[in-house]
Specification:
Strand 7 and strand 8 form a beta hairpin. The protein has ten helices and nine strands.
Amino acid sequence: MYNTSMSTISLSKTLQEIGLSEHESRVYVAALNLGPTTILQLAQASHVKRTTVYSIIESLQQRGLMSVEIRGLKKMFVAEHPDYLKTVLDEKKAKLDTIFPDLAALFHTHENSNSIKQYDGLPRIKKIYNALLTEIRAHEDYLVISQQEQWFKTDEEYFQKFIERRAKLNINIRMLLQDSPTTRTHKRFEKNYHETIKILPVDTRLTTNLIILPHKLLIHQLTLPYSVIVIEKPDVVLLHRELFEIIWKSIR
């Protein structure tokens, strides 16, 4: 008998979120649960009208998620393995990846270039960091003033992967870091991450991570409550770039 537990309902809702219609998701989940089955059984299990199930099966067949088996004089309808669904999503993501730079360029063309925005909470902060890696272009400067040890403690696993992803970009990374055991360890491996690091004077005390990009400034508060301020004001960005260069040149 078809399982109408919350987990099954949740599966159906998630399938809707990734592009299937309500009826498609219900029929597909029912077909997975039933195995080779008939129109009548699918209608009963999915709570979709029998007359509607016919068109839904055709739609699922076009998506590659349903097939037909002939058993004697009977037609049996079979859901394809969910691996195929994942393949379809991977293909869609690959298509999106090919046009993403053009979409991002359109966004920045119309984006307010004099904005100040604040984002609260670690999940939203991670989204901002992810966006940095897609926005920056090859050979552009990525400048940092930070307390590296506290930055890592915010979410060590995520930020370790972040610097590994960042290292794969052909960008100019220069970092001014507060002195700490973590900083000195990181400096020993700076070439592995395509970074150039200078250590700030020992009496420097920071509680933020400052990132300066060509057209954007990011100020990440490293103490609770976590937040990020993103500034896209050309004069403010230029000021911070100049201050960074002054500090950089002062440290041997």
